[in-house]
């Protein structure tokens, strides 16, 4: 963007502001401000490079939202003209050129939306709204070809044209994603009135793109919490270590890639590499390592098998195993029922073979599904129903699970089981909250069903004086977890805070935790995240061992084991990776793992940036590239905020901690 334009924008905005010396207040000339905003929108979408205009504003700026609306309207209109006439107008070419060149690189599918930069968020928002809008309008127009026998071919033409014109991904990836997902998307479009803005607001939660209201997608659970006593303090009852503590292995996000080939190309345009083009990589730094690779690559079988074998040999005292989902690889454009079944069965059966006497409690990750991320309601037609997955999983899981889990597993992939008297496991399929699960667009209130089952199960456990561990793939505070679902889930956590002894997640590929709070700021529960066995992306493989007090089932300590991938790949096939205990939580941070104890730890981290930085190093699993890059000011603030958020639009504790951390960091620089 030109210097003159930059100055003009700033002057026009500043001209709307006036400082009153008497009142010592900054006044806003609303008319002038809106003139400035209109000018900015016009320049952003008509005359300048998007990457330049976006540098001036944060992702949550209302101006970016207006700019996105303006560009979506134009792009959708021009695309419709192009489809009807086959003529590419200058405006059409200019808009698509601006979008195609605006964001950083091609690979949008390897990053979660909440990790994108503003330029990329703007790109995803505009393209999502415009292209869904084009398909939506043409598909619902009775006079349009999409309603006839050419409908599927026309929809694919639109999608592939946008994919290549806007450089979204490679042709192979776009074609694979379309072929896998289109039948379900078509069913949803045909059978609901949901519009493009609603769809994209779900998909891109908590950014400027999330501006639509969702009255049809809101619900409240009917709980018996009206007569519950007020919470006036954090939960501080603390389990103590005993000689009879249980040892629980937490495996998550294994992501086995059956096509991984050592020495193949580890840098590619697709979301997953390390599978092919070996001739291009030989003798270069782009060659995939033997035991895995830090780049966009998952685990070969020999690494998965070696990890399981090591655990069997190093930990003879494991009482239970939690496996919190995502066994399937990141080759998202080439999934199938057959492939997913083969990969999943190979991994899980190996766990059963090596730990025949240890009960295994699994839950479903978003990658288990085909198509990726999509989990249908029970009443969906067979052609788009997920029942094939639930039937397959029950056949495998039934080795360790009791027969009475069958009904709910077949209904929706969730279950409860009594591990021992007084100790209950609840395993959720919380892909109900995943914003990439398009069935949310179909009927959001369907997602209430499993949460009501959870309520009834916790109510029964409370009545039986049982302590509960909840397993679920996604952390409820993730930007990709629907805030309505996570809000109601956290209501349940608060209501049953004395019954729930621990919550265990995966998905983020980070060794971390999350403290659950009441609206008054009191800590009532803790979620523990097991990291990931896969190296995708830029992480050392890891697993966790929890030490659990047998009476209250509280986690009283945990340790994380890793191996350094750089060192392992230097040694190569001649030597197995050297696993080691990276840290023990009580030795590095605190031996009080109660919600109150961990809330106090967060206070200490906010006061002491070096303590928080140490937590971040372990969160990143001491990965070489991550440590070299370090954690800057923005990273530190995001790290402490994430620890305190379990509903993404409830950030009171996050704001308190970040304010304190900001002050501590500022004082350390003085």
TrEMBL record:
> What Gene Ontology molecular-function terms does this entry list?
acid sphingomyelin phosphodiesterase activity; hydrolase activity, acting on glycosyl bonds; metal ion binding
GO biological process entries: ceramide biosynthetic process; sphingomyelin catabolic process
What does UniProt give as GO cellular component? extracellular space; lysosome; membrane
Q: Where does the protein principally reside?
A: secreted
Q: List residues binding Zn(2+) 2.
A: 326, 366, 473, 507
Family, as annotated: Belongs to the acid sphingomyelinase family.
UniProtKB keywords: Disulfide bond, Glycoprotein, Glycosidase, Hydrolase, Membrane, Metal-binding, Secreted, Signal, Transmembrane, Transmembrane helix, Zinc
Asked whether the UniProt record includes Methyltransferase among its keywords, one would answer no
Listed under catalytic activity are: a sphingomyelin + H2O = phosphocholine + an N-acylsphing-4-enine + H(+)
Query: What is this protein's record name?
Result: Sphingomyelin phosphodiesterase
**Database matches in Pfam families:** ASMase_C, Metallophos
Is Disulfide bond set as a keyword in this record?
yes
Q: Where in the cell is it found?
A: Secreted
What region holds the Saposin B-type domain?
121-213
Q: What does this protein do?
A: Converts sphingomyelin to ceramide.
Annotated positions binding Zn(2+) 1: 253, 255, 326, 509
**Protein origin, superkingdom:** Eukaryota
Q: What is its EC number?
A: 3.1.4.12
Q: Where are the membrane-spanning stretches?
A: 32-54
- The disulfide bonds in this chain are 125-209, 128-200, 163-174, 268-273, 274-297, 433-481, 631-635, 641-654
What taxonomic lineage is listed for the species of origin? Eukaryota, Metazoa, Ecdysozoa, Arthropoda, Hexapoda
């Amino acid at each position: 963007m030109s210097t003159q334009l930059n100055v003009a924008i700033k002057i026009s905005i500043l001209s709307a502001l006036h400082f009153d010396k008497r009142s010592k207040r900054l006044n806003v000339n609303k008319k002038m401000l809106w003139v400035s905003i209109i000018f900015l929108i016009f320049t952003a979408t008509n005359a300048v490079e998007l990457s330049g205009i976006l540098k001036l504003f944060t992702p949550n700026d209302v101006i970016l939202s207006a700019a996105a609306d303006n560009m979506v309207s134009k792009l959708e209109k021009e695309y419709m003209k192009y489809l009807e006439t086959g003529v590419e107008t200058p405006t059409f070419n200019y808009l698509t050129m601006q979008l195609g060149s605006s964001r950083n690189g091609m690979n949008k599918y390897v990053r979660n939306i909440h990790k994108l930069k503003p330029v990329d968020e703007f790109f995803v928002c505009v393209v999502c709204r415009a292209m869904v809008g084009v398909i939506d309008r043409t598909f619902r127009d009775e006079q349009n070809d999409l309603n006839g026998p050419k409908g599927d071919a026309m929809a694919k033409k639109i999608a592939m044209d946008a994919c290549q014109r806007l450089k979204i991904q490679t042709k192979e990836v776009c074609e694979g994603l379309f072929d896998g997902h289109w039948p379900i998307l078509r069913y949803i479009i045909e059978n609901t009135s949901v519009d493009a803005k609603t769809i994209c607001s779900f998909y891109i939660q908590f950014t400027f793109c999330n501006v639509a209201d969702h009255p049809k997608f809101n619900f409240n659970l009917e709980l018996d919490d009206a007569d519950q006593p007020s919470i006036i303090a954090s939960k501080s009852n603390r389990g103590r270590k005993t000689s009879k503590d249980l040892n629980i292995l937490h495996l998550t996000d294994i992501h086995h890639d059956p096509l991984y080939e050592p020495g193949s190309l580890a840098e590619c345009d697709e979301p997953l590499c390390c599978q092919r083009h070996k001739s291009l990589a030989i003798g270069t730094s782009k060659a995939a390592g033997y035991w895995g690779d830090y780049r966009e690559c998952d685990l070969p079988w020999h690494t998965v098998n070696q990890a399981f074998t090591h655990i069997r040999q190093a930990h003879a005292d494991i009482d239970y195993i939690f496996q919190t989902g995502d066994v399937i690889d990141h080759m998202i454009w080439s999934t199938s029922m057959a492939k997913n079944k083969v990969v999943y069965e190979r991994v899980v059966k190996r766990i059963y073979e090596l730990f025949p006497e240890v009960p295994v409690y699994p839950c479903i990750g978003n990658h288990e599904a085909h198509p990726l991320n999509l989990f249908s309601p029970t009443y969906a037609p067979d052609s788009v129903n997920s029942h094939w997955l639930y039937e397959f999983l029950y056949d495998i899981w039934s080795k360790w699970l009791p027969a009475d889990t069958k009904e709910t597993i077949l209904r929706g992939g969730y279950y409860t089981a009594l591990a021992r008297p007084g100790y209950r496991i609840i395993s959720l399929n919380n892909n109900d909250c995943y914003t990439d699960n398009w069935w949310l667009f179909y009927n959001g209130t369907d997602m209430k069903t499993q949460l009501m089952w959870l309520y009834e199960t916790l109510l029964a456990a409370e009545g039986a004086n049982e302590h509960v561990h909840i397993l679920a793939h996604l952390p409820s505070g993730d930007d990709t977890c629907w805030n309505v679902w996570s809000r109601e889930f956290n209501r349940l956590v608060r209501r049953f805070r004395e019954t729930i002894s621990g919550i265990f997640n995966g998905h983020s590929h980070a060794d971390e935790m999350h403290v659950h709070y009441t609206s008054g700021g009191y800590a009532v529960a803790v979620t523990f995240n097991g990291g990931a066995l896969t190296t995708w992306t830029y992480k050392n493989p890891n697993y966790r061992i929890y030490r659990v007090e047998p009476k209250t089932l509280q986690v009283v300590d945990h340790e994380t084991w890793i191996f350094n991938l750089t060192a392992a790949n230097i040694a190569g096939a001649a030597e197995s990776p050297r696993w080691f205990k990276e840290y023990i939580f009580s030795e590095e941070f605190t031996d009080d793992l109660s919600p109150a104890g961990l809330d106090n730890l967060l206070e200490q981290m906010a006061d002491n940036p070096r303590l928080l930085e140490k937590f971040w190093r372990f969160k990143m699993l001491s990965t070489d590239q991550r440590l070299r890059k370090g954690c800057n000011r923005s990273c530190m603030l995001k790290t402490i905020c994430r620890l305190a958020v379990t509903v993404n639009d409830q950030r009171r504790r996050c704001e308190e901690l970040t304010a304190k951390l900001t002050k501590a960091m500022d004082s350390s620089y003085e």
